[in-house]
Amino acid sequence: MSPDKQPAAPSTGEHRFEPTIDVDHVDRRIRSSVRAQVIEAIKNNPELALAIVRGWKDTPH
Prior knowledge:
Layout: H1 23-44, H2 46-57
Helix pairs in contact: 1-2
């Protein structure tokens, strides 16, 4: 049998629990990263950023 087609290991009936993920921490890090990207985009393209914001003003809610 080729190495990439190994048979599945038999189940021992035991459940392995992974540590929980702190979703709030991950969410803050993602938001921080996105915020940094937005700031960088505004600094690099101020006219485009202003046009986008002005376009939002005209968008019906």
